Amino acid sequence: QVQLVESGGGLVQAGGSLRLSCAASGRTFSSYAMGWFRQAPGKEREFVAAISWSGDNTAYADSVKGRFTISRDNAKNTVHVQMNSLKPEDTAVYYCAARRGGLSSYDFVYDSWGQGTQVTVSS
Length: 123
Fold this sequence. Notes:
- The chain starts with a strand and ends with a strand.
- The mean pLDDT is about 95.
- It has strands at about 5, 10-15, 20-25, 30-40, 45-50, 60, 70-75, 80-85, 90-100, 110-115, 115-120.
- The chain is mainly β and about 120 residues long.
- Helices cover about 0% and strands about 50% of the residues.
- The strands form two sheets. Strands 2, 4, 5, 6, 9, 10 and 11 form a seven-stranded mixed sheet that branches. A four-stranded antiparallel sheet has the order 1-3-8-7, with no helix packed on it.
């Protein structure tokens, strides 16, 4: 497993942008697919975006497609999600997750999770 620490959350107005980062420990980061999930108050955790170990393949939830971009830097053991055109419904705690194998939108296949970072979008 890897240890994950998210950062970059905060308060932003609707239409604004944020860039979340996830720093991973361990020398095998490049063998992990990475995902971003979010959980709003009173709602279940939902998939946001995922990226393969190489960075060649990505996947997005329909709700964020065209607004969010996931990327990774294996040399720096980091994964990012650039969030543009933010909406109030994007308000949630955002979690970074890692798994060996291919990217997935299912949270139960990820075995390492960060502590989360709060994103609040005001209208």
